[in-house]
């Protein structure tokens, strides 16, 4: 799975295209742009409908199959050649059985842990992702969470709503300026987080198995080992793909060495 494959794969396949997890406005955008191709939009219950014909059931999660994944295409039109999904419709070995003609799976996300790459490879099915999107959006959201924490936004709103009080004694937060932010995973999203953090006057250390020294020099941060990052950071933020190697990052045990006053999100 790489950028070249992502760009080239779409044009290599003809035939029926099945879109999953698409809202009405997305369907209205995509439908006319694929005029001349056979396109089906599948709703949350697996009912296919052609463009310009809305479904009653809308989009969302389908009833799960025995392995917990939604059963795609169980209501017909399973002879699609190309399947386009997002993150809530896993493509497992079981779901692949429903699409005997499938040649290409293209997820409209950067993460691809919801796709069984091995099962796809065994069938010779090509898989592609979106190499990057929404990097500033996710970084801004990460900072929204960080500021909510540092400025005690949730407790403040709760106190005002529930007690009609704004007692500053219990709502004292902390400044970001001068604090050290540890960024685990300095890819597209992580780099945006770093740029925002520098705007707040923070020191930044980053851990990434593929460091890019020129980016560190340009953006005024330092790479560190994960161990040193955990020791030196006041706040830790994770921007790694979810996969077996990064699973422990999402476990509390990983942060035992971190002092209690520190935060991670
Ligand atoms: N919620 C959303 O809207 C949204 C949007 C885009 C991406 N994402 C998620 O965010 C993730 C990151 O997106 P991105 O665009 O920054 O991807 P990216 O590939 O540009 O960056 C990921 C970084 O993680 C690093 N990395 C890989 N393994 C690591 C490890 N074991 N420890 C530390 N770092 C490691 C990589 O070297 C890379 O620099 C995606 O995989 C996806 O799951 C979410």
Question: How would you characterize this protein structure?
Answer:
By secondary structure, this protein is α/β, with parallel strands linked by helices. It contains nine helices and eleven strands. It has two domains: about 10-130, Rossmann fold; about 135-265, NAD(P)-binding Rossmann-like Domain (Rossmann fold), CATH 3.40.50. The strands form two sheets. Strands 3-2-1-4-5-6 form a six-stranded mixed beta sheet. The chain is globular. Mean pLDDT is about 85; it is low at about 1-10 and about 55-75. The structure holds nicotinamide-adenine-dinucleotide. Nicotinamide-adenine-dinucleotide binds next to helix 5 and helix 7.
Integer tally of domains: 2
Mean pLDDT reading: 85
The level-1 CATH class of the largest domain = Alpha Beta
User: What is the level-2 CATH architecture name of the largest domain?
Assistant: 3-Layer(aba) Sandwich
Radius of gyration: 23 Å
Low-confidence stretches: 1-10, 54-73
Number of strands: 11
Task: From the 3D structure, determine the CATH topology of the largest domain.
Answer: Rossmann fold
Largest sheet: 6 strands, mixed
Instruction: Give helix and strand order, one letter per element, not per position.
Output: HEHEEEHEHEHHEHEHEHEE
Structural class: alpha/beta
The oligomerization state is: single chain
Question: What is the 3D shape?
Answer: globular
Beta-strand percentage? 5-15%
CATH superfamily of the largest domain: NAD(P)-binding Rossmann-like Domain
Number of helices: 9
Major sheet strand order: 3-2-1-4-5-6
User: What's the end-to-end separation, in Å?
Assistant: 29 Å
């Amino acid at each position: 799975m790489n950028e070249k494959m992502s760009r080239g794969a779409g044009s290599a396949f003809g035939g029926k295209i099945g879109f999953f997890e698409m809202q009405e406005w997305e369907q209205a955008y995509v439908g006319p742009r694929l005029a001349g191709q056979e396109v089906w939009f599948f709703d949350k219950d697996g009912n296919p409908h052609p463009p310009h014909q809305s479904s009653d059931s809308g989009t969302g999660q389908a009833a799960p199959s025995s392995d917990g994944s939604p059963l795609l295409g169980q209501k017909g039109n399973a002879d699609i050649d190309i399947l386009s999904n997002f993150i809530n419709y896993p493509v497992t070995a079981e779901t692949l059985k429903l699409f005997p003609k499938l040649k290409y799976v293209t997820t409209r996300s950067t993460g691809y842990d919801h796709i069984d790459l091995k099962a796809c490879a065994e069938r010779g099915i090509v898989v592609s992702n979106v190499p990057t999107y929404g990097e500033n959006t996710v970084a801004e959201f990460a900072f929204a969470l960080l500021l909510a924490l540092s400025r005690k936004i949730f407790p403040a709103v709760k106190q005002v709503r529930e007690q009609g009080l704004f007692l500053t004694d219990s709502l004292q937060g902390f400044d970001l300026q001068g604090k050290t932010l540890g960024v685990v995973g300095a890819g597209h999203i992580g780099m945006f987080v770093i740029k925002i953090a520098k705007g707040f006057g923070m020191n930044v250390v980053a851990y990434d198995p593929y460091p890019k020294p020129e980016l560190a020099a340009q953006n005024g941060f330092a790479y560190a080992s994960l161990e040193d990052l955990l020791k030196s950071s006041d706040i830790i933020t994770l921007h790694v793909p979810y996969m077996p190697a990064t699973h422990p990052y999402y476990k509390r045990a990983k942060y035992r060495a971190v002092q209690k006053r520190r935060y991670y999100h």
